[in-house]
Design a protein that fits this description.
Layout (H helix, E strand, L loop, with lengths): L4 E9 L5 H12 L3 H7 L5 E7 L1 H13 L2 E7 L2 H7 L12 H10 L15 H7 L158
Antiparallel strand pairs: 1-2, 1-3
Length: 286
Amino acid sequence: METRYNVYFAGQLLSGQELASVRDKLAKLFNADQQTLEKLFSGKAQLLKRDCDKATALKYKQAMERAGARPIIKASQSAAAEQSAPLTPPPEKTMSAAEKIAALAAAPDEGGYSSKEPSTSPKESATSSKESATGSAEQQPISDQEGINLAPAGTDVLREDERAEPVVSEIDTAGLEVDAATQRLSEEPPPPPPAPDTSHLDMGGVGEMIPNLPSDQVPLSPNTNAIDLSPAGTDFTDCAPPEAEPPPLDLSSMDLAPAGTDVLEERYRKKEQAEAPATDHISLEE
């Protein structure tokens, strides 16, 4: 009889891998939510694939190692027991993907998980999508429940009875018509203005002075004969403006009070502070 294998994961990482990076990769690999990831990295061995052949076990091993996780693969002991047991199939009950996820989330922490295979054939995926449930998730450990595998690429996610009817919109196109091919969809733009005439212009030679433009304004020629420069170190204080005269103030109605006169009225004076209370009879204990 061909040896069968169980694939487990106990949260162990390969050398040089970071926990956050491996969690993200396993979340994408197994399409797992945060609750499932917490159980996968709880330190207890969780069952990922039950009773698979050697090729499938190697697929799990390679996919998990590429994600940085260290799987645990053990020989399955259920093959001999299944041969000796009577071949009476349990009552089959088809579960939707939502029901399987709900049962997996409500299950206790004991046991393991079964998730999708990294690479499975269409036959294996079709078989796994019809796995039966022999009891409620609250009464069975996770290791005794049927696994959840991914269907092949392109498989419909919802069953026929779960799909919503598409909304068909009836658009009246009676007033529309299609123009002939290569016809413009907008009006023809006006032609651009003609380029300016530059036939009377020519280029001057390199280094040639550009003549000034003609102007009717008479150039200024101020007379500076009466202006000369002062010798170096000349003091220009005589150029400063004269000081302003003090303004006229009438102080005839004002007089100084005698020496010692209070400046402030009674109501504006500062009140005397009260004497501090006596504290000579008070002492501090050590």
